[in-house]
User: Fold this.
Amino acid sequence: MPVLSIFVTASLDERIRRVSARDKMTPRQAEQKIRRADRERAAYYNSLSDAGWGVAENYNLCIDTGLFDIDTAAAMVAAAARGMQVPAAGQKA
Assistant:
């Protein structure tokens, strides 16, 4: 079964705005939280893969949620999953 690898991103300013509103914190606190989470995500991804975290070539689909709302991004992911080519038995993905 093939795997759909997705990277969801947005500008730092957009992420700060969203986290500040969602978690009811100052923009400075939100930025610190985001940077810490990014470091942790990158370390985890890089510990499991030789590929670099956040490098577009390492994903089947990259979505900038600063350009698309969450519902549109989810629809894009669903459409990509539905449209994936599944290799025939005995063929490599």
